[in-house]
Amino acid sequence: MKKIIPLLLLIFMMSCNTVKNYYQVYQTNSKTVQHKDNNALVFEDNNCRISYNLWGKYGNAGFSFYNKTNETITLLLDDSFYVINGNAYDYFQNRIFSNSSNSSSSTTSSSSVTLWSRLTVSNFASNTLVANTASGVERIEPRTIAIPANTSKTISEFDINQTIFRDCDLLRFPTSKQTSSKSFSEESTPIKFYNSIAYKMGDKVNKVKNDFYVSNITNIAEKDILKDVKNNFCGQKNGSIQKVFKESGPDKFYITYLKSQSDVWKY
User: Is 226 helix (H, G, I), strand (E, B) or coil?
Assistant: First the structure.
């Protein structure tokens, strides 16, 4: 009996420190980018097709640029910007990327000066040389990117938002029987963002503005947003279970946050 009591006490203490996972899901809207299918939001003109999939933790403001023409299009990074709530951030940041095969060197991601940087750019993947510079290769970030005819390139530089939005109309930790959402108009939204993209064909420079705003924010418990499914490949299930989102979409993104026993905030 004396051995059982400390065990029960330990279990009780562990239960008091239980941490629950929650998600804050952001729904966006746009007047310039259309929801074409389940995987992409698309802007299109005579020369290009620009596709977005915002879905992911913190949101991905990046885009895929497809050249529809039979000529090479030049994407002008030094004249392209990501703008959120009136603050502009440069796609061209004049960085120098290095890599090395020297075993004494450590590898780190290149860093950006901007607040919402994803620190991973598909066209500029790089390592930072910290030891023997003689064995490393430095590469200067390009001001422009050439996109051949009928091909695409992806630029992924900025997160949309990393900070939990709090409001007196939005329950911080809703139960499964509660719905905690708040809707916004384009005028009342807490987050507006857009990409200003400049590209060149021949001697002509074209500029595109793809704008978005957050139209709804929902707080939801992890168990209500995720479901368990068996791994399946070509109809074969191996019995292992993975968690997947019940609903997702290219016009949405999310932030995760935690609730502990000591957290008493209602909103």
Answer: strand
